[in-house]
């Protein structure tokens, strides 16, 4: 859920502008190291870390993005550490953005967390949260085509919603309006962002319809199967052609058996036999 901010960081300001938080549009965005580990055995890594430099010099800020799949009581302490560490390391204000796929997790992550004794909390953690409760559901293909990063982010955050199918169909249609390289990036980001959400299978089914746009593991497997089928068809045609050129009659039953075979090893054996066979039936003698 956080990787889309690496590919299209502008989606952050556009999304929050619709929510009434006027972050300035960046004039430059830098991808920073995500390793926040100190010289201690405990390793700490934020999911995605970006630096937003705006036209106003004093408006620059760091954006730490965390993808949160469920409630985790240990997280607020880690998030507070991230913000304090980033402020000390870079000397630039930091914003924590938590991205969720369900409303319960989003509600938990949105709650301010006081750190310190109740009579005098030393720090108050206030994450910004994006999820199905406040990210618009982009169901119109034209709207999706106008802002594909936002449409992809909408699909990811609404991955557990009943309307996820409509959002994914709009995104799928919109991706056909851009070049294949751009489409493949957001296809993969969407599939990764959906994770194990029910909508992930809907997305795979949609993308399998047009494999030229699909770059996921599923599509690569399907394309591999298609290439194997193509090689089998080609080898079957070679066997029939070889027998015909040698003047050997290929009955309909034998022709159907050869063309129906999809096992390349078997077809290889039949091809070798076709070089010396005196009849088509000799190809299948041992079978």
From TrEMBL:
<protein>
    <recommendedName>
        <fullName>Transposase</fullName>
    </recommendedName>
</protein>
């Amino acid at each position: 859920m956080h990787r889309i901010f690496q590919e299209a960081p502008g989606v952050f300001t556009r999304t929050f502008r619709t929510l009434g938080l006027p972050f300035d549009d960046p004039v430059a965005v830098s991808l920073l190291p995500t390793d926040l580990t100190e010289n201690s055995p405990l390793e700490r890594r934020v999911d995605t870390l970006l630096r937003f430099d705006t036209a106003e010099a004093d408006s620059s800020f760091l954006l730490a993005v965390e993808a949160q799949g469920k409630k985790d009581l240990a997280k607020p302490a880690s998030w507070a550490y991230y913000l304090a560490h980033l402020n000390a390391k870079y000397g630039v204000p930091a914003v924590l953005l938590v991205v969720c796929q369900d409303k319960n997790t989003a509600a938990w992550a949105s709650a301010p967390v006081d750190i310190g004794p109740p009579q005098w909390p030393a720090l108050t953690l206030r994450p910004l949260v994006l999820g199905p409760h406040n990210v618009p559901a982009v169901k119109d293909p034209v709207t999706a085509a106008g802002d594909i990063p936002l449409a992809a982010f909408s699909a990811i955050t609404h991955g557990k919603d009943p309307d996820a199918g409509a959002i994914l169909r709009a995104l799928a249609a919109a991706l056909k309006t851009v070049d294949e390289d751009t489409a493949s990036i957001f296809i993969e980001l969407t599939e990764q962002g959906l994770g194990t959400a029910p909508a992930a299978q809907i997305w795979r089914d949609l993308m399998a319809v047009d494999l030229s746009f699909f770059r996921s593991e599923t599509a690569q497997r399907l394309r591999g199967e298609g290439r194997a089928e193509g090689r089998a068809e080609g080898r079957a045609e070679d066997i029939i052609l070889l027998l015909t050129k040698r003047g050997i009659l290929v009955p309909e039953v034998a022709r159907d058996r050869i063309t129906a075979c999809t096992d390349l090893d078997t077809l290889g054996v039949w091809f070798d036999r076709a070089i010396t066979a005196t009849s088509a039936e000799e190809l299948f003698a041992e079978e």
